[in-house]
Amino acid sequence: MKQDKLTSLLAYVPKHLSQRMIDNIKGFVVSDKVLIEGAVIVAELSGLTNLFEALAKTGEASTKELNEICSDYFNSVFGEVEKYGGDILYFDSSEMYFLVIRKPRQHYSTCVRTAGQITLDIQKKMLKFNQINTSAGIFSMTMKTAVTVGEIYHTVIGQKGKQAQYIYTAPIFEEAKNALHHAIPGQVLISDYAIAKACGIELEEPQKLYSPISRTTKSISKVGYEPIDIKNISVRDKIRLTEFLSSFVPKEIFRNLHVQGKISEGDRRRVTILALSFEGINFQNEKTTKIQNYLTSIFDTVEETSGYIFNILSDKNGGHIFIAFGAPILSKNQENRAIYCALKLMNLMTIFKGIKQRIGITTGFMYAGVIGSIHRKKYCLIGNTLKLAVSVVNSAKNEQIWVDKYVYERTVDTSEYIKLDPIMISGYSWPIQIYQLLHLKSEFDKSSLLPQKEDELDYSEENMQFYTLIHNVLSNKPQIITICGDESNRTKLSHKLLDISQESGLMTFSGKCVSGQEKKPFSLWKEVFIQFFELDTALSNRDKQGKLVKMAQMINPQLTELIPLFADVLPIELKETERTKALKPKERKKQFFYLLKEIFLHHIAKHPTLFLLENADFADELSEELLEKFIRFAKKMPVLIALTCTNARNLPVYKRYPNKIINYE
Question: Which of these, 80, 344, 436, 510, could form a disulfide with 612 (CB 3.0-4.6 Å)?
Fold first, then answer.
């Protein structure tokens, strides 16, 4: 590997770890536990996830825009750390840990003062991110920081040449994070213990445990970024070092770097997150062999199911492990893989006595890609799906596996569940429906979950056309297609489209007209409405009404006055409101279309959707009118409308929009 590629790989681990690998190139032991002393900066970032979620709705250019913002942000922040010789231990979209290592015979005062100056300079840099102009509007990113001092334990878990993660643990991390809960954005706090070991730091107002810093009163030397010297390393040792470093980089990233000499930009994709919380291991006091054996078993299980461990966080008596399915490698059956992995992970408790586990699984669209600066990088996932997984696992009970509604819907045919009461989660204004996983159904074929390579995905010509369609949908380019021909061909293609759409994370709803039957109002859409609003036939009239009202209230409380209009279309009795009573037939239809528009657009903006409408040749006039209105108001929305029919040219909507509709025969 050329030197520049090796230098790029070095950016994926903290500088002190890279140096330790080089210094012990022949005898580096993965499981060694190392004690480091110094001043630590803990930072909490707010705003990046919200920025991603907003940009994701604006189209294909949003990913490039987010990449540029992330690059500017991390280069600005990390540049301040590197300017004073600091090390970047860990970072993601919401948390960062920096370290100013205490050198041999160096007084703590120097590294504490340096850490204080770094945080003050970072907060100055943050001012440029107070107002970020984007295609989705103006956004703000803010940061809270805390400085403390003490000992940190560091270890590497995993296997060389496979996958490895570095872990840091120290009581001071938790203390600093707790202090930040009471801080305000832009504030720099410092612990009493750090102040006692330093001079030259002026406080705004002394407080108990942690106080805000005003400024440093002694000059701090700027050493600048000092790259790790690899010039004198032999070719054989460079190969060894490359093997070590490749364990910290996703295989796909390493392959791109090795073959192309560069890393492709991140993208928006559907990812399933498995969050594992465990208790019963103290990283600071526990024997390294127990930690290594337990986590190695987890690594092996995850590899068997084609998952990727992208984060391990530790605390006093345990920690969290975050596993992704569908990133970095696109995968079939990602939710089923996560379910199978979760069940196998739970079995580890029979081997490792005294360890308690709980698991939360969510699925949704996320930004997946490499973030960081020139000298420090990481493969990261950004989005509310991860935040929701954290909340679900923290709410789950020990020895239980909880999943969200979307994981349940994609795995209910293969797994047994118990429906639990909805839970309230921070950041959500409505309860989240949760299900407890029990086991796989006996008839489920586990061979479909064997380790998968990217080239095992079906990229036939037909499938590639559908993948292209869905890529356009995910880029907020609505697609309207017709699937024509005999019934056998229509069935084959529509099933294939459904499979690929669900695999790609689209929510799917289907309706169907029956030939030879009397044309009833909205016959093409009636089943879509029932599926969309989850109006199970077993539900009481009151429960059905409650679902409709609840959905309308979440969007706009004024829409609840129009809910009785659904009684004209759906098998439900609804009492007229004063507003609907006064509507004449023509205005009634107009208001019903308005109601559907508001509800559908609100849903589609959050969840890319496929509407499969079969036997469109036999649709009634109201179905055709709604279809035409849908095409007009769904501009720049992630929606795919697929119509099956004998001959597309006979459809009124095709005659009206021949240039907008793609025909498959």
Answer: 510
Does 310 share its domain with 438? yes
Do 468 and 426 lie in a common domain? no
Q: How many residues does the chain have?
A: 665
13, part of any domain: no
Spatial distance between the Cα atoms of 470 and 508, rounded to a whole number of angstroms = 12
- Is 275 a residue whose pLDDT tops 70? yes
Domain end position, chosen among 456, 473, 500: 456
Domain count, the chain: 3
| Neighbouring residues of 657: CB distance < 8 A, sequence distance ≥ 6 | 480, 628, 631
Average of per-residue pLDDT across 580-591: 90
Residue 207 CA to residue 8 CA, distance in Å, equals 43
Based on the domain organization, do 195 and 300 belong to the same domain? no
> For tokens 């199911």, what's the residue?
305
Instruction: Among 267-281, 443-457, 615-629, name the one with the lowest average pLDDT.
Output: 443-457
pLDDT in tens, 311-353: 998 877 888 999 999 988 877 789 999 999 999 999 998 898 8
209 and 272 assigned to the same domain? no
CA separation for the pair 359, 374 (Å, rounded): 35
| 421/465 same-domain check | no
Same domain, 497 and 604: yes
Last residue of a domain, one of 218, 245, 270: 218
Pairing of strands 267-279, 201-203: unpaired
Q: What is the DSSP letter of 510?
A: E
**How many Å is the Cα radius of gyration of the chain?**
28
Question: What residues are paired with 313 via a beta bridge?
Answer: 320
Query: Does the residue 235 lie in any domain?
Result: no
The answer to whether the CB of 333 falls within 8 A of the CB of 306 is no
Are 480 and 565 in the same domain? Answer: yes
pLDDT on residue 461: 60
Retrieve residue 414's tokens. Answer: 């293969």
pLDDT of residue 452: 52
Rounded to whole angstroms, the Cα distance separating 218 from 206 reads 19
Task: Check residue 47 and report its DSSP letter.
Answer: S
pLDDT at site 485? 80
Read off the CATH number of the domain in which 540 is found: 3.40.50.300
pLDDT digits (tens, 9 = 90+) for 458-509: 445 667 678 778 878 887 888 898 888 888 778 888 888 887 887 677 888 8
Q: Is residue 250 part of a domain?
A: no
Spatial separation of the C-alpha atoms in residues 192 and 203, rounded to whole Å: 11
The answer to whether the pTM exceeds 0.90 is no
DSSP H helices, 84-200, are 108-126, 171-180, 192-196
